[in-house]
Amino acid sequence: MDESIIENLVKTENPDEGVANEAVLAALRENKDVVSGVIEGGFTVWEGTRHLLNFLEPRNAEVHHFVQGKRVLDLGCGAGLLGIYALQQGASRVVFQTNRRAKSVSFYSGDWHDLSELWRTLSDLRFDLILTAEIIYRPELYVKLHEMLDVALAHNPDSSILMANKLSYHGIGGNVYDFVKFVEERGVFSLNMKQLTDSGIAYVCLSMKRILTSYSTLVSRIAAGIRIQHCQCKD
Length: 235
Known about the structure:
alpha/beta; Rossmann fold; 41% helix; nucleus; S-adenosyl-L-methionine; methyltransferase
């Protein structure tokens, strides 16, 4: 997969006319990858995407076995390389965040909170695998991101999120440790961390799974809560 060709295509393809797109074109002419409220890196193939692909490709047989026939979300897709890779590995459906259309593929563009609200009403938009990279660079987006992941990830034990990120985004504020703490405090997902680089800038892959509560455990927790309330009220 020639990433430079795809990135160049994304950056040079003429968008629809409009004020917002004029702002995007102006940013691209100035070689700016991120401009708040205009573009959030969606026209650039970031290193995190490359590192995640480099991590997955030597494991193609294993990935193919897991991805084949599954529903995949390429969240914050940019040039869409992770979603394209999932299609190559036999995914039955891939959803990207963008505004183009193609066979076996769906595209959505919008704020994560707005998409979360929309997808709550669409039961078919639940995914077995979410692939994403370089999306924790701004701490103020963690709430929306967590909401999006919670809505989008299917409720089954095998559903997974693979997220490649720089260890720390200096000057912007986001970093892996703060994001992990943020996620752990909410108790929705479990996390494992895998180092992706041996030298240079540190990149890691976060593997996330939904914490599923069994029916018996849920009943026990409810019963325990009732007992606690009863004891408190007894006095």
